[in-house]
Amino acid sequence: MTDLDAPRVRVNQVGYLTHGPKAATLVTDATGPVPWRLLRGDAVVAAGESVPRGHDPSAGVDVHVVTFDAVREPGAGYVLEADGATSDPFAIGADLYDGLRVDALVVFYGQRSGVAIDEALLGEGYGRAAGHVDVAPNGGDGAVPCLPAGHATTAEGVDLYDGWTGGYALDVTGGWYDAGDQGKYVVNGGIAVAQLLGLYERTLRTRGADAADADPLGDGSLRVPERGNGVPDVLDEVRWELDWMLRMVVPDGEPFAGLVHHKVSDERWVPLPMLPADDPQPRFLHRPSTAATLNLAAVAAQGSRLFAPHDADFAERLLTAARAAYDAASTHPVLLAPDTNTLANAGSGPYDDTDVDDDRLWAATELYLTTGEDRFAADLRANPYRLGGTSPAFRPEGFDWNHVAAWARLQLATVPSALPERALVRTSVVDAADDLVAQQATQPFGHPYVPTSGRYDWGSNGLLLNNLAVLAAAHEITGDVRYRDAVLGGVDYLLGRNAVGVSYVTGYGTRDVRNQHSRWYAHQLDASLPHPPRGTVSGGPNSDCPDPVSAALAGSPAQRCFVDDIGAYGVNEMTINWNSALAWVASYLAGLGDGAAPA
User: Quick check: is 564 catalytic?
Assistant: First the structure.
């Protein structure tokens, strides 16, 4: 699937909210305006002229923009014609994203480790045996030892773990597989948990505006095994990961006691396809890290206040764990995770993290929001990322698992608290959103993602989605529809209005990606296996083109550094942190209804 296959009129292939903005991008060499028509069946619904935007260096093409905001007749089967080209069909209406909110969340059920996946829940053909449960050929995660001494040595003889090894094994069953592999990583699980908890907490804050349904994310809303237990389903899903994170703590009496292991993974990469139950590789715990420990502190504190109405004992356990992790990280403030991709025996993503001040800000944020204690407010004020004003918290490239200061700001700005500096934090979020709106205005494909280098990063779609979360937070803070419109423009890009003309979300749009890098959603390699489930987002264009498949695109304009191929892990992987960002944005979108301003 390439841009050569897509119509030159690029639209959101799902559609546009009735009362929201509506824009398309036309790829054309025409230097002046060209006429366009919006059709539904044989009827011409609207017509006008395009606005030339010149050459877009991120796409490598000349483009015009077409807008049709005034069209508000709900329905499916709309197409846009211009310059001899016809767009893919799309809809106009309300509630276009209700299904995406559910599907993006149910993707997490399919990533569960240590349990059989029920196709009655995930879909026909998606069932599979439990992975890593001490059943041959894999040894399972019931008693995973620490990485042996010497295994963290590079080919050049450098020991990245400074001689660390532990003489113990831990039961680290459960949790989510991180991406297309069987590794489980605390720092990526942390931001994913935070965003799922965050979207639920936001829904509680805005329930009156979000939906007529009293609790659109309540018990029975998702296809998960625990539905019907009286607990909101999104919390059930999150608990699968939280329980695993609690198992990753270094036991008392051991070196680095109380810290959290950075990851558990295979010794070496396994080939594709490979079902988790068939993984033959030994599994090891990697050295604990300050970043992983602060991740647990943050999400355990956040989870504590949200689980409290449903399971007081678990909520108290989480808060106790959060405090202990925060204190342990203070005892070992700079135990950093190295770039273990340089290991001769690499079998996992590195998730190296050389700056933990942002993680510390985040952990203090969630502990303060849950407890209101002055201790944590003081730590917030002392943090280098600060509470407001000019700060590296917000990056043009967007935030991610490795840059969480912006997420901490969003939480402080939107979750009610008595923090004296809250107004300052809220202003900083709105200022960051204003910068994104200004950046978006320069992009003829309508997306607020403009890296300062001009190069798209690994997981550019996830970074874009996190920029949309900043804009959505500004909309919540101010009520200004400019920020809502900017979110919708970014979603247009994800769902088809882009240089390659694809929807980056499986199951949504005429030309959706279906071959994300995954060892078990590997239909491209084995027809007996499924594609990724509906609601799975692709990582998206990556200017580095780091894998053997996308390497052929190296040097291409940034937006065109993409191919829907299972081997293209650098541009087309699936990961829990990108899907959590999608789920957060989809939940916000579902709350907009038809896009009309509240009365």
Answer: yes
